[in-house]
Write a structure and sequence with these properties.
12% of the residues lie in helices and 37% in strands. It is mainly beta. Strands 3, 4, 5, 6, 7, 8 and 9 form a seven-stranded mixed β-sheet that branches. It has a four-stranded mixed β-sheet with strand order 13-14-15-16, with helices on one face. A hairpin with a 2-residue loop joins strand 18 and strand 19. Keywords: Signal. It holds the Pfam family LpqB_N. This is LpqB family beta-propeller domain-containing protein.
Length: 574
């Protein structure tokens, strides 16, 4: 079982670890310090530091063969040739090392794993603790501290030596090895109105074939949790040409697609080029992209200048002195026309990106208020039992939901129309918080059930052409932050991560940055851990308030209190 210290190490471990491809609950497990040589098989930074362990030795026992095989998962050279040397000739042809990747918890080493062997020495089983699983498309799912992967190996003698005749597909590797041989990349898709690029975070093996794997996944479409929320310019059936390889020459990535049917317009060609070039730009060895479709070069001039993120220019909003206020530097300024909120049981203010409207809860969460910036008369736009704090999207729709949830999220549009959006995964759970991503495509939902730890679900928001939410959220939310024993509050911190006040088992509540598809990173120690958290678009402007109203700002990797400022419920625009 993982100790609290182990789980805390997971924070740093998995963060760099999640670099790549696929994870399910099966496969080979490398040790943290195998004996071997340094590989030099790829030009990707960091890949050369991967250590390749030795192959099997004459007379190795069944246990030594299996452990050696698991450790050899760290060696990627020549398509995992060292690991395959532990297999029979037939199994070496069948075993797929990248069918899945499971990341071991904390400081777990292969030598510490218990296993059982049948009396005839032909079957070995073991159960290993894992902290994260990446599927075959590179999508990372966090695992709870109690998650284990059950592995079974069949063995037989070949030329007088034990070899594995049946092994689980995929890798089970240590966090240290994972961060060495895998990297995180964002596949870029579009919002439904093509106004912004939306990142779909995936993990891929560091190798010369990484650009090809990335483009194949991009052409295959977005992750299930984004279904209906983002669009791709590449039509169904789009794929690389017969060579099926992205080549790089002098920093230029050559991407050749086959003929597309129907033939794309110039605008569509430009959008396809935008997706591909924006996705590949994260690879250090690539400085530019040449795209051909059906043998014809797509000019860079056709590529639009699509924004990669929504700018958050306004200061945070808070409630201070019984008024809606904005934080400016180390001071708090009352919002002009803010009503007197004394006695109103007001909480959870929000402000739109364009500063044209504010929203907050009143009556202890029973009323959702909307206040236009040019008016001093707030209007009640929704009534409910125990509403959660509002979040305003870039279309100026206000999102909330009832704490005792029956499987729906509520949005109030600009025209006061109320949209009740089905969210079946919330049915019967207590809704604690919800936050809309700044591009408006994703909803981060914090909820809990009974005495179970709170969890974060990230799910896409399908919209109609007017930007209004459609009937239901995507039905495959991505679970985030499963390794926490408590989560108090969340906020978007950029386009690929969340800020959270959370607790590892055995620890105290502290601020973390949590990848939507990846592990957490603790953001230093904060006295008392904090009560509410808010983050700006860049993920660096982070505020935490205490239950006493003290405000702390995160700058230069340290927390500083804003002297003489007292407020509650901070929120950046959105």
């Amino acid at each position: 079982m993982s100790t609290p210290a182990n789980l805390r190490r997971l924070t740093v471990i998995v963060l760099a670890a999640l670099s790549a491809l696929v994870l399910t609950a099966c496969s080979s497990i490398p040790t943290d310090s195998p004996v071997g040589h340094i590989e030099a098989q790829t030009s990707e930074p960091g890949a050369d530091s991967a250590r390749a362990p030795d192959g099997p030795k004459p007379g190795d026992s069944v246990g030594e063969i299996v452990r050696g095989f698991l450790a050899a998962g760290a060696g990627t050279a020549n398509n995992f040739a060292v690991a395959k040397s532990f297999l029979t000739e037939a199994e070496a042809q069948e075993w797929n090392p990248l069918a899945s990747v499971s990341v071991l918890s904390g400081d777990t080493e292969v030598d510490s794993l218990n296993y059982e062997v049948t009396s005839d020495q032909k079957t070995l089983t073991m159960s290993v603790p894992v902290v994260g699983i990446v599927d075959s498309s590179g999508i990372f799912s966090s695992a709870t501290p109690s998650t284990r992967s059950n592995l079974e190996f069949s063995l037989r003698q070949e030329n007088g030596e034990w070899r594995i005749s049946s092994a689980p597909n995929g890798l089970v590797i240590s966090p240290t090895t994972f961060r060495t041989i895998f990297l995180n990349y964002s596949l870029e898709f579009f919002t439904s109105d093509f106004s912004y690029l939306v990142p779909d975070s995936r993990w891929f093996l560091r190798s010369s074939s990484t650009p090809t794997a990335i483009i194949n996944e991009l052409l295959a479409g977005p992750a299930p949790y984004l279904a209906g929320a983002v669009v791709t310019a590449a039509p169904d059936g789009a794929k690389l040409n017969d060579s099926n390889v992205v080549t790089i020459e002098s920093g230029v990535a050559h991407v050749s697609l086959g003929n597309l049917t129907p033939a794309p317009t110039d605008r569509e060609k430009g959008l396809i080029r935008q997706q591909i070039s924006s996705t590949l730009k994260a690879i250090p060895s690539i400085s530019s992209v040449e795209l051909t479709i059906g043998g014809q070069v797509v000019s860079e001039s056709l590529q639009p200048k699509t924004d990669s993120s929504v700018q958050v220019d306004g200061p945070p909003v808070v409630i201070a002195g019984d008024r809606i206020s904005r934080i400016s530097g180390t001071t708090v300024a009352r919002v002009e026309n803010s009503p007197d909120l004394k006695g109103a049981e007001a909480s959870d203010p929000a402000v739109s990106f364009d500063d044209s409207l504010y929203s907050y809860l009143s009556g202890g969460g029973r009323e959702l208020k909307r206040l236009k910036a040019d008016s001093s008369d707030p209007r009640t736009v929704l009534r409910g039992e125990g509403l959660v704090g509002p979040s305003i999207d870039r279309f100026n729709s206000i999102w909330t939901g009832e704490r005792k949830n029956k499987g729906e999220i509520i949005a109030v549009g600009r025209d006061d129309e109320v949209y009740r959006v089905s969210a079946d995964f919330l049915s019967g759970r207590e809704l604690m918080d919800l936050e809309i991503s700044r591009d408006g495509t994703r909803l981060a939902v914090l909820s809990r059930q009974g005495s179970e730890p709170a969890r974060i679900d990230v799910v896409g928001i399908p919209r109609d052409r007017a930007g209004n939410p459609s009937a239901s959220l995507a039905d495959a939310p991505l679970e985030v932050g499963s390794y926490f024993s408590q989560i108090r509050d969340i906020s978007w911190a950029g386009s690929t991560s969340l800020a959270a006040l959370a607790q590892m088992p055995g620890e105290t509540v502290q601020p973390y940055r949590v990848g939507v598809s990846g592990p957490p990173e603790q953001l230093g120690q904060l006295p008392g851990g904090g009560d509410r958290i808010a983050a700006g678009e860049d993920g660096r402007s982070i505020l935490v308030t205490s239950s006493a109203g003290e405000i702390y700002s995160y700058n230069s990797n340290a927390w500083q209190r804003l002297i003489d400022v007292t407020a509650k419920d901070p929120a950046y625009p959105g």
